[in-house]
Amino acid sequence: MTSNNKLVSSIVVLLLMVLSTSLQAQQNIKFGKVTFNNAINVAGKQRMLTQKMSKAYLYLVSNPSDMKAKKDLLTSKILFERQNSFLLENSRNKLTTTNIQKVDQLFVEFKKALETTPGYENAKKITDLNTDLLMASNQTVVSIINNSKLVNSATDAEVLGDNVSIADRLELQTIINVAGRQRMLSQRLALYYYANTIAVNDKNVTRILNNTYNELEGALTKLMICQFNNPEIDEKIGLALTKWDNVKTQKEKLINKTLKKEEVYELSDALTVVFNDITNLYEKIDL
Question: Does the N-terminal or the C-terminal CB of the chain have fewer CB atoms within 10 Å?
Fold first, then answer.
């Protein structure tokens, strides 16, 4: 073999080694078979579904024949279980797996409560149980983000041929979480409006309703000034602001329990849809 051929062979071997290392690194920065961005989005939807199921149940207390609420409750239960299985199958981190399993355990009792005939006593139980399930679901999101930080920090960006800093990638995941949390808060706002109409002078329920409203309002500012916004995202944020203004103009009625329950149900769903669109757009940003 000539010296030129040896040189070419050496270069080919080197390129193959670099390619193999690059592919291995790319596999290492994924959440199982999916991206961390996708996993954060899906886990964030689980938070929303805990509140959507609870909202539908409390709404059915005074509207037992409402077909949409019944459908929402049924489909949300199925989706919640399927998505939790999806997260568990793809988790490669011990702490994240433990958090997902805790959600599964808490959902057993929660599901039993959801399958009872809607009534005031059962509604109180749902109101008590939903927060533990929500907190556990949120902890899953947090653990996935922390897992991503560890994996990204251990990965050589130069090997990946990555011109984007790890900090930018993690910042994008943070905003996916913020946008996704808005979906949950949109449902929680309606849930605690209904809880407030059922409760008698329960200051804790009123406090949660106020806190939910304030968190929704505050996070909108974070989305508006996000560095990753593009024209499509800006348009969706503008739509979210329009729908939120419809809530803001009726805040007094919201707190004083004088809005129609049907109207609150529709408002929360409309907000959830637009925030879901925004979250999906952030997830698709390729850094």
Answer: N
